[in-house]
């Protein structure tokens, strides 16, 4: 084997680079410094979209016992369609899920027709009562003559 000074220099540089990379990783582990690439440019970290503090619980007593760590907390009951909210002020609220059923166009038209028919029925009853009272008034007027 022959000694190659260029290869020895390349190996030395690779070892230095690996040592620097491991030191950078250790430093970034212990701080909130964003990762730095080889060109010494800061790479943007993805923004956290954490806006939900939730947890699954078995029942209301378990939900009341959960610590909320200075954040509003929503707890979903595993066994019932209920969820609980624990606020920063310590208030505890219980809510029930209700399914929202979308009405179809035909159902809407049928409902409108039913309302219209009910209105017509009430109108005809009122009209009949008015006619009867007018007839009674006429009969009463005819008797007085």
Question: In a nutshell, what does this entry contain?
Answer:
This protein has 145 residues and is an alpha+beta fold. The chain contains 3 helices and 4 strands; from the N terminus they run H-E-H-E-E-E-H. It starts with a helix and ends with a helix.
Describe this structure in words.
- There is one protein chain.
- The chain is of the alpha+beta class.
- It contains three helices and four strands; from the N terminus they run αβαβββα.
- The protein is elongated, with a radius of gyration of 40 Å.
Q: What share of the residues lie within helices? A: 40-55%
What is the residue-mean pLDDT, rounded to a whole number? 80
Task: Specify the biggest β-sheet.
Answer: 4 strands, mixed
Total helices: the number is 3
**Which residues sit in consecutive blocks of at least 5 with pLDDT less than 50?**
none
- The fraction of residues assigned to DSSP E strands is 5-15%
List keywords for this structure.
elongated, alpha+beta, 145 residues, 4-stranded mixed beta sheet
Strands, helices and their partners?
Elements: H1 5-29, E1 54-57, H2 60-65, E2 73-77, E3 82-86, E4 92-96, H3 105-144
Parallel strand pairs: 1-2
Antiparallel strand pairs: 2-3, 3-4
């Amino acid at each position: 084997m022959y000694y190659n000074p260029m290869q020895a220099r390349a190996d030395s540089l690779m070892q230095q680079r690996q040592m620097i990379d491991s030191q950078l990783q250790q430093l970034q582990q212990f701080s909130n410094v964003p990762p730095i690439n080889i060109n010494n440019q800061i790479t943007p970290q993805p923004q956290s979209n954490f806006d939900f503090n939730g947890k699954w619980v078995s029942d209301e007593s378990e939900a009341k016992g959960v610590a909320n760590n200075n954040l509003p907390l929503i707890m979903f009951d595993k066994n019932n369609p209920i969820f609980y909210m624990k606020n920063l002020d310590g208030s505890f609220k219980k809510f029930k899920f209700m399914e929202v059923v979308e009405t179809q166009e035909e159902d809407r038209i049928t409902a409108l027709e039913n309302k219209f028919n009910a209105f017509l029925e009430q109108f005809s009853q009122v009209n009949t009562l008015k006619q009867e009272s007018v007839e009674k008034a006429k009969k009463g007027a005819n008797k007085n003559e």
